[in-house]
Amino acid sequence: MRAAVVGTEPNEPPVRVTDVPRPHARDDWAVVRLERASLNRLDAMMLDQRTSEAPGAVFGSDGAGVIHELGADVPPSAGWSVGDQVVISPSLHWGRDERVPSSEYEILGSPTHGTHAEYVAVPAANLHPKPQHLSWEEAAALPMAGLTAWRALVSRGRLTEGETVLVGAASSGVGTAAVQIAAAAGARVVAVTASRAKSDEALELGAAVTVDRTAGDVVAQLRAATGGRADLALDPTGNLWGPFVENLRPAGRLVVVGKMAAAVATLDVQSVYWKQLDVLGSSMGSPQDFASLLAQVTTHRWAPRVDSVHPLTDIDAAYARLDAADRVGKVVLDVRA
Ligand SMILES: NC(=O)c1ccc[n+]([C@@H]2O[C@H](COP(=O)([O-])OP(=O)(O)OC[C@H]3O[C@@H](n4cnc5c(N)ncnc54)[C@H](OP(=O)(O)O)[C@@H]3O)[C@@H](O)[C@H]2O)c1
Fold first, then answer.
1. Is 199 touching ligand 1 by the criterion CB < 6 Å?
2. Global pTM exceeds 0.85
3. Is the CB of 234 under 6 A from ligand 1?
């Protein structure tokens, strides 16, 4: 099969599409013949550190396709048949504790070979029926960004209908999903973006108000949008902790999932304790989180925002698009092309 293999020697290209052996379904695993996959910031971050990967690594956490092969130990009670259309949860071996993943936890794509290939092997427990209203592109755009946003907003952030929610990096994979999840849940979404065009896209996805972080004082813009009374805030960037905390109501919640812009955050300590705020960390999500995400997607018939679709053979262009200033939503790979 063809796969995007990461070059682990410094003089090799970062990634090249080449033929590798097709995986087989052992034990309670399954092999999926992928239709589409997508890229996440995680892939780009790992590509930056590629020389520390094992030789032959195939990245990619997100994919959707049809079941090609089922391992002998996949129980009939799972209800799967070869040919079923599925979307893959990228959280491998989460375990039984909803609060934290197990010590065996990993994200599909490293070290387990990922979805930037024609076939991928995953535990059958990570398969879920593809929501029928989604195209293959949309289904492959959903998993990591949707799961991360779902757990952050709903499981950790305790989002309820009617609340005002601040979403940072609203044009990112996680941010676009967060806007859609919060809007579908009946929240009033205030989206932080980086241009007029991205603001317009956030409004299309369900935001009520937008704030342009490149157009003046973010704290003041957020105050104008919320009166300093937001209930919940989600920051994938690391540099919005301060502005968000200033604009949360007493007993509000800040959930953090990433360090896209800053690995160290500064906060007004007094605002946190005086307002009785919760500062919550969140990463990826459990099988229950993924099932709940799919239930909302299906009930509300929302579809992830796909920025662009690239053939697997042009994976360099897909990685380049991830860094394009005008990108909104997910970069998808057509692994059949
Ligand atoms: N903890 C987890 O489980 C988990 C899972 C998935 C992702 N993440 C993290 O969440 C973040 C987003 O991931 P993704 O895959 O959605 O990324 P992505 O689609 O590549 O989006 C990155 C976004 O970050 C924003 N950004 C870039 N530079 C910025 C800056 N200097 N200041 C503020 N914002 C900036 C931009 O949004 P705007 O142009 O709209 O501002 C950009 O679209 C990453 O840090 C990633 O590592 C964490």
1. no
2. yes
3. no
Examine the domain organization and report whether 93 and 209 are in the same domain. Answer: no
Instruction: Answer yes or no: is the C-beta of 198 below 6 A from any ligand 1 atom.
Output: yes
Residue 189 belongs to domain with CATH number: 3.90.180.10
Whether residue 188 is found in the same domain as residue 242: yes
- In angstroms, the CA 134 to CA 298 distance is 9
Q: Determine, yes or no, domain membership for 287.
A: no
The per-residue DSSP string of 183-231 comes to HHTT-EEEEEESSHHHHHHHHHHT-SEEEETTSS-HHHHHHHHHTT-EE
Q: Do 136 and 11 share a structural domain?
A: yes
- Both 266 and 325 in one domain: the answer is no
Ligand 1 pocket member 236 (CB < 6 A): yes
Based on the domain organization, do 218 and 269 belong to the same domain? yes
Give the pLDDT confidence of 195-229 residue by residue, as tens digits: 999 999 999 999 999 999 999 999 999 999 999 99
Interval between CA 263 and ligand 1 midpoint (Å): 12
In short, whether 145's Cβ falls inside 6 Å of ligand 1 is: yes
CA of 117 to the centre of ligand 1 (A): 24
Beta strands in 39-126 (DSSP E): 62-70, 85-88, 91-92, 106-107, 119-123
Residues 28 and 100 in one domain: yes
State the closest ligand 1 atom to the C-alpha of 174, by its place in the atom list counted from 1. 16
Spatial contact of 315 and 337, defined as CB atoms under 8 Å apart: no
Query: Which pLDDT tens digit goes with each residue over 147-199?
Result: 999 999 999 999 999 999 999 999 999 999 999 999 999 999 999 999 999 99
Using a 6 Å cutoff on CB, does residue 194 contact ligand 1?
A: yes
Residue numbers of the domain that contains 112: 2-142+304-334
Q: Whose CA is nearest to atom 8 of ligand 1?
A: 258
Mean pLDDT per 10-residue section of the chain, whose length is 337 residues: 95 95 98 98 95 93 98 97 98 98 97 98 98 98 98 98 98 98 98 96 98 95 97 97 98 97 94 97 98 98 98 98 97 96
* DSSP run (H or E) holding 289: helix 287-300
The closest residue, in CA terms, to atom 32 on ligand 1 is 261
